[in-house]
TrEMBL record:
Residues 38-61 are annotated as: Disordered. Residues 40-55 have a biased composition (Polar residues). This is DUF2633 domain-containing protein. InterPro entries: YfgG (IPR022576).
């Protein structure tokens, strides 16, 4: 009886650990995607501002 109880408890602990691990993976994936998106947006804005500073003659007639 004691052996069966230990196996059941081990399965419960492993299941909870897996759920926590999976949740952390999802959380990290969402965070890395938003970080990548904001970095890309900042890079586009920086290239746009440097392009307008390099070519001011395009705006004058």
């Amino acid at each position: 009886m004691r052996k069966r109880n230990n196996i059941k408890m081990t399965k419960i602990v492993l299941t909870i650990s897996f759920i926590i691990l999976f949740g952390r993976l999802i959380y990290a994936a969402i965070g890395s995607y938003s970080h990548h998106k904001s970095q890309k947006q900042a890079q586009v804005e920086q290239s746009m501002s440097s392009a307008t500073q390099e070519n001011p003659s395009d705006k004058t007639p």
